[in-house]
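ok, trying the design again with the full structure, not the truncated one.
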């Protein structure tokens, strides 16, 4: 079965990116179709000189310590909006914003360290930045950190902590955390095996279009039918 373990890429990430660009005047959610992290979005169509001007403006704000501009530049280089895609440049801008306490940048940086995109892969550094963002309540950071605790990567394996983080993340709508709680209950990881609880979490995730949960429910239903 396919399983998203450490990365982020759901609607929340796309929404945050769009909202951020709108804040700094780069995105106009009325004009043209593009994709951000695989999600269909709308952005303003700019001529090359206009795009260069927008990036220049962001750089000026970034040099003055504007955190929103720092994050916007990270997203721009990550997604190839107004500039050519460059994971290393994205990581550099995220790092600057992350050091200033921006939870979104910290989460994106954690994701990069887990995947090795734009930085040298390191679960230890992934955990470091995920912890910072998770402490502020970021659901995707909590999901990433929970994955690490579940697998014992970059941190000491701790199923109880993983469940705690998955639950907080799931309560904020992160569907992979809901699916993961289903796995934890089904396999008895940190809790007693409880198929009813597992199915309940799978259903919550499936209702929000999580394909992994939908596939798991279909498999469970198929197994039940074969036993009849």
């Amino acid at each position: 079965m396919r399983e998203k373990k450490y990365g982020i890429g759901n609607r929340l990430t796309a929404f945050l990116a769009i909202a951020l660009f709108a804040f700094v005047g780069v995105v106009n959610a009325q004009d043209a179709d593009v994709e951000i992290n695989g999600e269909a979005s709308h952005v303003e169509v700019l001529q090359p000189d206009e795009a260069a001007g927008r990036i220049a403006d962001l750089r000026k704000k970034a040099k003055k310590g504007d955190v929103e501009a720092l994050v916007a530049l990270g997203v721009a280089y990550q997604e190839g909006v107004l500039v050519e895609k460059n994971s290393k440049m994205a990581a550099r801008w995220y790092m600057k914003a992350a050091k200033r306490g921006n939870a979104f940048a910290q989460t994106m940086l954690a994701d990069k360290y887990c995947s090795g995109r734009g930085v040298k892969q390191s679960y230890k550094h992934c955990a470091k930045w995920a912890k910072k963002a998770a402490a502020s309540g970021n659901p995707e950071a909590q999901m990433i950190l929970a994955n690490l605790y579940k697998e014992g990567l970059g941190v000491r394996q701790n199923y109880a902590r993983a469940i705690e983080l998955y639950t907080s993340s799931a309560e904020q709508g992160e569907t992979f955390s809901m699916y993961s709680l289903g796995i934890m209950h089904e396999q008895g990881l940190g809790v007693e095996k409880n198929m009813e609880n597992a199915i309940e979490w799978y259903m919550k995730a499936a209702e929000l279009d999580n394909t992994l949960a939908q596939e798991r429910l279909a498999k469970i239903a198929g197994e039940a039918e074969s036993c009849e």
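Keeping the full-length input from now on. The longest helix spans residues 211-227.
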